[in-house]
Each structure stands twice: as C-alpha cells, then as structure tokens.
Amino acid sequence: MTVSCRKVRVLFVTIMMLNIFFCILVGISWKLRKRGHHKIRIPFKRFWCQRVLSKSFWNKEQQRLDFIHNPIFSSWLSGNSDIELPDWLNDSRTLDPCEPNYRVTTQIVDYNSLPERFQHFLLHMRCRTYPMLINQPNVCEDKPFLLLAVKSLIPHFDRRQAIRETWGRAGVLANRTVATVFLLGNTMSVDHFPDLLGMLAHEAVLHRDVLQWDYRDSFYNLTLKEVLFLEWFSKHCPQAQYVLKGDDDVFVNTLRIIDFLEGLSEVAAKDLFIGDVISNAGPHRDPKLKYFIPESVFVGQYPPYAGGGGYLYSGELALRLCNVSHQVALYPIDDVYTGMCLKKLGLTPEKHTGFRTFDIEEKYRYSPCIYRSLMLVHSRTPQDILKIWPWIVHPELDCQ
C-alpha cells in the first residue's frame, strides 16, 4: 500500500468517527427537543450515514458525493493535490461528466435487462449541464408573488393552452402577481416523435412562457428537469416569493393557494414545502411497474416526499434546494429525489389535505363546491380544467 493510499484511509476512518460522534450529538439533541413542534427535523438514524461502501450503484454515487462535499476532506484535498485517490473516489477516467459513463454497464449487474430509457439515464446520470434552447429571462421582471412551474412535453399543446386560459393565467390575480413557465426537454429520433419544433417555437414567441433544454425528455429524466429548473430559477427568478411546481394534467385552485400563502407567518414561509406527502415508502422491485428500481441501483428506504403531481414551496427554499442538489446524486424518480434534497437540508415536507395527487372520490369529481376548498387535484383533462375553473372564479356559486 502506498503512503498516499494510507493517508486517504486514515482520513476516511477519521471522518467516519467524526460522523458517528456527530450522530450521537444529534440524537441527544433530538430527544431533548422532541416534545416541541419543529418544522426542521434531524432524525436519530441519519439517512446519509453509511458505514461501508455500498454495492448498489446509486448508493455508491451518493457516498462519493458525501465524501467529496465533506468540508474536512475537501479542505485537506485542496492542500494535497498530488494524492492518489482510491478507485471509488477517482474520476480521472471520466473527466467530462456529460460524456456517457459506460462503466455503469459493468457496475450494474442487471443493466442489460433494464428499460432502454432507464439505461440512458444511468449512462448520463452525472451530467447536469445542457444547452438551453428556449429561454424567457424576463418572465419574472415584475417580481412575482407566485411562480407556476409546469412540467410538460412538446406535443402537449392543448394542455398548456388550457392552463393559460384558467389556473395558470399570468398577470395579477387576487391583487398578487402570478407568473407561469412551462418546462420542456427535447424529443429524440429514437423515440419516434413527429417534428413539432416549429410549432413550439411559434408558441414560445406568442406566449413567452416556454422554457426548453436540449436533453431527452423522458420519465426517468424528470429529475433532470427539476435540477435544470432550479438552476434557471436561481439565475432568472430568485425574487419570486413562492413556487407551485406541477404536472400539466393537474387542476390548481390558484385563488385558494394565494389565500393560503397570504396567511403564513414569516417563520412558516421560510421553510414552506407542502403537498401530498408519502412516508415510509421504498423502491418497487417488480420490473413490470413504472417505478421499478432494482437492488443493483438502490437499496434503502425513501425519505418522506411529496407526490410529483404538484407541491408548493417558498422561493427562498428553492434557492437552497438548488445549492444542495449538487450534493445529491440524480435519482430516476423526481419526487423522491426532491425528498432526498429536503432530507439533506434537514427538512421534512408537510402534508396538506388540499393536495390530492391521487384524485378525489369519483362521486365528488364534478361537484363544483369541492374544488373551492382544494389546492391541487390530479389528474384532469384540458376539457375538465376549462369546465372546473369557472366554478372557482364565479362569485355567484353558493358553497355555504
């Protein structure tokens, strides 16, 4: 064993001992405070504390990031640039994170059996920089109270238009400034989509609310859409007070959301993150399911997370999520990934009954007054959205 390798091993053991000591202190602190109500929770069993190098691909990637972003290691490494790092920390073979990382094909034992788009995600998992094809740098020039960020796909013209005409109409609503952006990736020839870029370019010029990046838009890349939006937000819309992030097939009661936000205290607003929260969940192991994640990719439980159909959070928290996302390895399920980022910040999303990402009882779906008390419902067609919105804005509807 070389001297440099021994130095790294000694440092690694030292950091692990410090982590154990920190966990003990946090556990004592948490027990002393558990009688009170605290929005910020640091659990006794830390989600990030791993004692041995994992065999699962994502867990190894996360351990690598944890080690790199450890302030003790990073300061030590900056003064020892000639040190030879162990293989699991050494990235010299992939200097460009946006070049396909073909090592994953041998690092994941069942790689060849995974869906092709899942394989594509894994090959490009470290890349977070993609060219922006359509930007709207002035969309937040009026310093919006609420920014509506809607995940969409290029062919979904009808969904975007229905939203523009209803809950996503930009301008002044209830004496508050509202801005709207639609988040899109690109289509690839391998996915056999028709060429709609000319129509999209016209839409972007006409409405000035389309954001598009040059990456393959797929279910597994929704996490990439999340981090690219956060980067865009930090550069072009950091003054927005709140963000509602949702799919293009949800109905949102924008008036109810504004009313809720106006009643928040300054303390509650700072760490606000609410939605339809899922707790005590873990990865699905059935290959037939949409959310299938094999043990070769990830082991462990998921932290609490809000269903990706839609959630509401503060602009200040969006900036912190942007920063911390660089310390969390991309995960192929976007809402779980956001929960991981919140966990890294020491926060837990808060469940709100106004968010119904798994819909409401069928007998109430076309009852006008039900929607007055809700914030978000998933899913609704463009025709449904156009039908429901008048129920929200017409004052003559008596729901007493």
UniProtKB/TrEMBL annotation:
Per UniProt, the keywords (alphabetical) are:
Glycoprotein, Glycosyltransferase, Golgi apparatus, Manganese, Membrane, Signal-anchor, Transferase, Transmembrane, Transmembrane helix
Q: Name one Pfam family in it.
A: Galactosyl_T
Question: What reaction does this catalyse?
Answer: a beta-D-galactosyl-(1->4)-N-acetyl-beta-D-glucosaminyl derivative + UDP-N-acetyl-alpha-D-glucosamine = an N-acetyl-beta-D-glucosaminyl-(1->3)-beta-D-galactosyl-(1->4)-N-acetyl-beta-D-glucosaminyl derivative + UDP + H(+)
| InterPro entries noted in UniProt | Glyco_trans_31 (IPR002659)
- The keyword Manganese is assigned to this record: yes
Question: What EC identifiers does the entry list?
Answer: 2.4.1.-
- What subcellular locations does the record give? Golgi apparatus membrane
Q: What cofactor(s) does the depicted protein rely on? A: Mn(2+)
- GO cellular component terms, semicolon-separated: Golgi membrane
Topological category with respect to the lipid bilayer? Single-pass type II membrane protein
Q: Which GO terms describe its biological process?
A: poly-N-acetyllactosamine biosynthetic process; protein O-linked glycosylation
GO molecular function term, any single one: N-acetyllactosaminide beta-1,3-N-acetylglucosaminyltransferase activity
Q: Which residues cross the membrane?
A: 12-32
Q: Which family does it belong to?
A: Belongs to the glycosyltransferase 31 family.
Tell me how this protein assembles.
Answer: Interacts with B3GNT8; this interaction greatly increases B3GNT2 catalytic activity, independently of B3GNT8 enzymatic activity.
**What is the official name of this protein in its record?**
Hexosyltransferase
Which organism was this protein described from?
A: Channa striata (Snakehead murrel)
Q: What is the lineage of its organism?
A: Eukaryota, Metazoa, Chordata, Craniata, Vertebrata
